Amino acid sequence: MEKKISTAILASGNGTNAKAILESCKRIDTKIIITNNSNSLVLKVAKEHNVPSFVIPHEGKQRITHELEILETIKRYDIRFVVLAGYMRVLTKYFLKQFELNKPDYYGTINIHPADTKFYQGTKGYEFALGLLPGKPVRWKETKITAHLVDEGIDTGHIIYQHPIPIHENDTIYTLKEKGLKAEHDFYPKAIDGYLAQMVPR
């Protein structure tokens, strides 16, 4: 029987990647979902899947103060792995250190990014691929959704898996995002399971 890893999901937006993870991942046991956004639809996803959820807003707080509040909540659930699913905050080295790989039975923090992180980091990855950003007018022939470990940089961590998305001549930002999000929902759970399959002893 596959060992399941005690996991926390952090999300800020619509919760669609979190939903895909909850329904498809075989190697994690999601103990808790945390959001910094009280309007995030991930709260509905958590309720539908009977996962405890917490809103921990960041407004008006220093980054480390906010992270300490998250860690205090996470501590109650013996979390060994953190999955970012549209979490729109940059995590500090202090937070990441709590789950770092050199600690026994800890598996780090993973994120998904809608671009090839070797070429583009930050928000608006699909806009980048279409050449829509100021100073970056090149339209690419494909973009690559990237699953990567999280370090203290912005989308600079070790790449685990990538999934290509072709960009056609008639693609717009709307069609590319639609294709990309659909691919994310399929790709991210598989990337998580594949990563843990290599990391966790049978």
Description:
- This protein is of the alpha/beta class and 202 residues long.
- The chain has one domain (5-115, 145-164, 188-199): Rossmann fold, CATH 3.40.50.170.
- The chain contains six helices and seven strands.
- A seven-stranded mixed β-sheet has the order 3-2-1-4-5-6-7, sandwiched between helices.
- Strand 2, helix 2 and strand 3 form a beta-alpha-beta unit.
- 40% of the residues are buried.
Keywords:
202 residues; alpha/beta; Rossmann fold; seven-stranded mixed beta sheet; 6 helices; 7 strands; 32% helix
Task: Write a compact overview of the structure shown.
By secondary structure, this protein is an alpha/beta fold. The protein is 32% helix and 21% strand.
**Structural class by SSE content:** alpha/beta
Distance between the termini: 8 Å
> Numbering strands along the chain, what is their spatial order in the largest sheet?
3-2-1-4-5-6-7
Rg, rounded, reads 17 Å
Mean pLDDT: 95
Q: Which word captures the global form? A: globular
Helical coverage, percent range: 25-40%
What's the story with the biggest beta sheet?
7 strands, mixed
Number of helices: 6
The CATH topology comes to Rossmann fold
Element string (H = helix, E = strand): EHEHEHEHEHEEH
The residue ranges in which pLDDT falls below 50 over 5 or more consecutive positions are none
CATH class: Alpha Beta
Q: Supply the number of structural domains.
A: 1
- Specify the CATH homologous superfamily: Formyl transferase, N-terminal domain
The overall strand count is 7
CATH architecture: 3-Layer(aba) Sandwich
Strand content: 15-25%
